[in-house]
Amino acid sequence: MDAMRLCALWLPGLSLIRPGSGMGPGDPAVPPCSNFSFKSCDECLKNVSCLWCNAKNTCMDYPVRSILPSSSLCPLYDARWGVCWMNFEAFIIAIAVIAGLILLSIAVCCCYCCYCRRHSRGIPDEEEERLARDREERRMQSLQRKHERKMKQDEIRKKYGLLQDSDHPYSRFENE
What pLDDT is attached to residue 19? Predict the structure, then answer.
């Protein structure tokens, strides 16, 4: 269904690409499409409002109200509009692929931007907060163990008389 809507949007766009596409069915200087039947596809498609059917070699007015020509008029693989070298099936597939790629790239860009914004704001998520708490806990345990080691070392120094006076750390050591 989306492919039909996109096709409806792209079909008028092709008329901007083709030279001499200003002709339409309301223009009095333009002959009706049926006059180009049993001639060539190129002659028929000079008028933007015409549709060429390869199977029947007929040129007919494009069925504007139904967006896509019905299979009773002309099968999609034989219908040509805008250019003679591309049938409607290929045109619809190409439009669907292009639209899919555009939607996919927009989705990827949106997801990437949302991901970058979340991490660039400086708002830590749960995982980062847990890691920071664990890091702080390990640091505190390390400081506590360091303080306990220092206390034990000081006790040993005091026991053997190696603990220097803190007022004169550079006092001379004297033998007795």
Answer: 43
